[in-house]
Amino acid sequence: MAKVLMKGNEAIGEAAIRAGCLNYFAYPITPQSEVAEYLVRRLPEVGGVFLQGESEVAVGYMIFGAAGAGVRVFTTSSSPGISLMSEAISYIAAAQCPAVFVNIMRGGPGLGGILPSQADYLQATKGIGHGDCRLLVMAPASVQEAVEMVMKAFPLAEKYRNPVMILGDGLIGQMMEPVEFPDQLKTEPSNKDAWATNGMDHRKSKTRNLVKSLFLDPVQLNDNNLALKAKYDRMRAEEVMSESYNTDGDYKGLIVSYGTMSRVCRTAIDMLKTEGIDVGMIRPQTVFPFPEKAVAEAAMKPSCMHVLSIEMSMGQMIEDVERSVKGRIPVSWYGKCGGDIPTPEEVIDVVRERIA
Amino acid sequence: MGKTFKKPEALSDAHTHYCPGCTHGVIHRLVAETIDELGIRGRTVGIAPVGCAVLAYNYFNCDFQEAAHGRAPAMATGIKRVRPDLMVFTYQGDGDLASIGMGEIIHAANRGEKFTTIFVNNAIYGMTGGQMAPTTMPDQRTSTSPFGRKVEEVGMPIKMAELLAALQTPAYISRQTVIKPKYITKAKKAIKQAFTYQLENKCFSLVEVVSTCPTNWGMTPVQAVEWTEKTLLAYYQPGDYKVPA
After folding, report:
1. The whole model's pTM is what?
2. Is the Cβ of B84 closer than 8 Å to some Cβ of chain A?
3. Which of A176, A207, A238 is the last residue of a domain?
4. Is A304 in the same domain as A325?
5. Structural domains in chain B, sorted by start
6. Distance from B38 to chain A by nearest Cα, in Å?
7. Which residue on chain A is closest to B109 by alpha carbon?
8. Which of A34, A219, A316, B224 lies 20 to 30 Å from A251, alpha-carbon distance?
């Protein structure tokens, strides 16, 4: 397919359809309402299901119900809405159902603001819902990458029978970029008869399926949590994605940055290079699992004296960066979190002050 | 002559955890008989609530999902919208449906979702140990209204059937009880009617079943039946509140 110019939010909606997901439930919230406005027209063309729920709380459970019934289903929201959905996300993870949640992050806490932010990093990677649940979280840095990640998200959710989150900042949703859609995926999860409540008549076994998260027996609950942990460990082993930039030669400092912020850092790195200052960058594409090994290896280059975690939050990803660097060299944070995206010049000033 | 009264196929062999004098068992049976009679067990998905019936999936023999407290109508919406060929029912208590799940049930009913809700109203929270519900009667003592429900502080008990019947969207809304055989026959008819409307893809359907909780009411099963008939049924009057055209 030829390249088309699309707004991030609309491209995310189209990518889901091309991933074979024809079921969408959502509640309006800025800055991602264009996904619903796109899909309400597009889904009927492909025989899909669109429903605007009465709240993000209810939408979370519409997703749970549909996922439990064995269909591909997804929703999109933004920070305060994801907080409300996080109850359902915990249940979906516990009941081991596949579903995709897109968070086009806006500023917080509270109502915060409607401009781009990356302040839901800890919520997405470590604190989504109660109990020992985790999401596989992918963070796109362009509309093209958002499309590719949405299309990867459904098969990954089915591989792990676990919710997958696309963690984009407001800019990814709002900006227009050229995008080329990958080939259409198959429409349905392949193994659903083993667990989905899709009606006994549809299954060879003719035995009933249960989708549940209550385990009153402590041994059974511990077993379920061990099964979840095994999946999260497998994600750590098999699904880590990151990109490195300007790390082939020597560099005095290393930036770790993701999403829109990483694009600003890339520009800053290019500008610094013309002045003869080399800085490398690791861009996590999955933030859970975090690319610990890539960050550690890049930080251990003998020329590297300092690691900067640059994020549109007050210092959230830095906890994972520090965990990866393990105190071997200094790690510091720089960021802004009001919706005002740091400029390359601001990043350059920070690099000069702390590294060069 | 062969056996004429037997356990419905839609019920499992498990012994229930319900207390003596509780009416959940009767209601389970009426739902299971309906599923058998309509021949829909192989395409039925039940949604268990949070409350005494949280383990309902152990007693029914069909596909089941388990909701968070109050969210069953949203889950049923999700299933029914993506798989309209499935028969979907929620089974919810009064704490679940009329308190924490008020938003979900009203919006599901108002959208005219084509699933069935069995709403078991015993005027108290059962599983958490007998706390006040939105349906608790004036002056009724519970563990969180130890001196009786004070209407001036927490308002009057909510009449869910009347409240839902006031919505303009077509629906089948009925209130029944199962405390005596004469009521059970009518309740069965209403439950079967509710499932039939879903089978015909006609409308949202809800049957409120006024029920007993001798354990948390501090009564014997016989006293509980008497109190239900005298007090609850006077306020929660049985009947069809809304029937689709």
Report:
1. 0.97
2. no
3. A238
4. yes
5. 24-242 (3.40.50.970)
6. 14
7. A54
8. A316
